[in-house]
Design brief:
The complex is a heterodimer of chains A (162) and B (167). With 162 residues, chain A is mainly beta. In chain A, 12% of the residues lie in helices and 43% in strands. Chain B has one domain. Chain B is mainly beta. In chain B, strand 8 and strand 9 form a beta hairpin. Chain B has 3 helices and 10 strands. In chain B, the strands form 2 sheets. Chain B has a 6-stranded antiparallel β-sheet with strand order 1-6-7-8-9-10, with no helix packed on it. The N and C termini of chain B lie far apart (55 Å). Classes of the chains: A mainly beta (162), B mainly beta (167). Chains A and B meet through strand 10 of A and strand 4 and strand 10 of B.
Amino acid sequence: MMIRIYCWAFIVFLLQAGMVFGANSVSLKDGRAELAIELKGGKKFSIVVLASKPNFSIYGSQSLWGAEQGHPASAIVKLDIRIGKQKIYIPFSAYADLANPMNVSLGQSGNDVVLLVNGGDGADAYTAELVFQQGRYLKKRRVVNGSFPDKAWEETRYSFNM
Amino acid sequence: MSKINWYCSLVAVCVILLSPVVWGDYIETQDLTSSANTKFSLRAYGMAVTVVAKTKVVNAKDFLGPRFIEGQFTDTFSVIENLEIVVNNRKLVVPSSAFIDLVDVRKCELILSTGQGVLHIYGGDGSESFEGEIYFDKVAVRRRAVFDPASPKKPMEETIYSLRVIE
């Protein structure tokens, strides 16, 4: 009986994960990724992610997500997010420390839109989750280390004046 | 000694013990624009804290790249290249997200109170001004909050850290 319950729970988990992030993953190998989904009201939520080699020594020796020893090969330099044609304000802190990004995916969780950024490699691997309240503004960012997701993480809550 | 003298002495001791001079916060303030390396120390409440802030003057347009908006910033400003916090000879892990987004930094202030330290970083000008607060204890950096000075009660953003501490 218990095994059956666990199996059903696992199937539900897989279905939910698939619904949220199943189909919409794009590589950042070329330094640019574009993603879009349709919100419940019919409007388009679109994101352009730009990544390139950072110019300044500010990125030099710092411990960044995806480059613990510093000197990353690339970092996210811009997030352009729009609902329809209207641009959404994204603070620099939402992506400034995300180094060596590999791919991004976009999905929906309930009424919220979720952008996932996977980056780093091996012990430096990380996943950053940016949650947009009802697709309208950035509400939360959570970054977790791939090797120690329970122990090494940070979470930011945003409440800027709109 | 008469009873009145005894009571007076007791009141005086209580006043001294409860005064902010004995139990209040310890504060050290430093300018971040006059030197590329700002180092200062403070010792209180069993914490000997040294802060080293390495800053760099950058061209706003080059630094901000696609985020640059004409007229929003001065031509050049200071950014923090590296921030070191040492507590009781132990170097804390300072996540880059605690300071990497703070541009046009101007002044910092270290405050020690019971059990914790707070490094305040002030910067910007006019509508771009901000106050960042980095909270730490003897073991790790725990929290960061950034405030708009016009709304000092509620942070614009607040980050909680759970980072591996290597013993």
